[in-house]
Design goal:
GO terms for molecular function: dioxygenase activity. The protein folds into two domains: 155 residues, Double-stranded beta-helix (4-Layer Sandwich); 134 residues, Clavaminate synthase-like (Double-stranded beta-helix, 4-Layer Sandwich), CATH 3.60.130. The chain is 25% helix and 27% strand. It is built from nine helices and 20 strands. The strands form five sheets. It has an eight-stranded mixed β-sheet, with helices on one face. A four-stranded antiparallel β-sheet has the order 6-18-9-16. Strand 13 and strand 14 form a beta hairpin. The N terminus is likely disordered.
Amino acid sequence: MSSSTPASALDVDLRPGKPAMLRADAAGDAPRWASEHRDALRAAVAEHGSLLVRGLGVREIAEAAAVFHRLSTGLMTEREAFAARQDHGDGVYSSSKWPANQQMCMHNELSYALEFPGMMQFACLTAPEHGGATAVADTPTVLDALPADLVARFEREGWLLVRNYNDEIGASFAEAFGTDDRAEVERYCRNNAIEFEWQPDGGLRTRQRRSAVVRHPATGRRCWFNQIAFLNEWTIAPEVREFLVEVYGPEGLPFNTLFGNGEPVGEDVVALLNEVYEANTAREPWQDGDLMLVDNIRNAHSREAYEGPREVLVAMADATHLAACSPTIEVTAP
């Protein structure tokens, strides 16, 4: 099958509650197979929002990196990370270092940045014993299922992300911005419409207002594109939230999300968002060697709690600018 083969020629398995799946026969050469099927795979992602490729047999970091590069228009260097990752070089990372017993709720990767990946790529080298799926949810469907008045408010006001960087929890500002040079951090913030304030203890507090609804640059479809639920205080495990508030105070949480006018997003709103995500979630347990491609605007993704070793590599591909997605909130940056 040549790289010009249309997505319709792929034998994609579509089942309710499952991501679109394709069984591959790479004959021990995953990068070559990826090159031969590149256009058809990308077309399938555009059609379905995501695609799980099973049987590709990716086993090593270098092999996964070769597949990632051959399927993308370019890999990104992550900036503004909310949790530490291991950097394997050349745009390939470990999955976020997040407690295995805590779910990472649905989100669109780097949706608080002015430049974000158009496509997320995942390769499973070691599947966990239980759980740990990277689940997906169709963001136009989620948007349509949300109350119209809530959507209208977020379209009008956007959402506000407040972050407190320190060396004790989450990503430090040096990890998030790729430098410990304060002048470089300040320059990045100014260039990316991020308000910043250095704290007396040497930490950094930032605020950035972004659109909650965007239009897909390829299709024009309205998508629920944000991390409002995931990075909100009410999504943090209760005992962890209580501890953090006690230690850092309610204003010192490592991250929190607000309505665009600065008003709190209530626990009821966060619960509603997560309920709508869950009602529209597609999931399939990882198997060793799997590859998953996700349209980062069309699909939100999550990571479920798990048991046992889990090694999933990540690449952020196809850099996309917010300005290309018809944002509802004007962002002022040089």
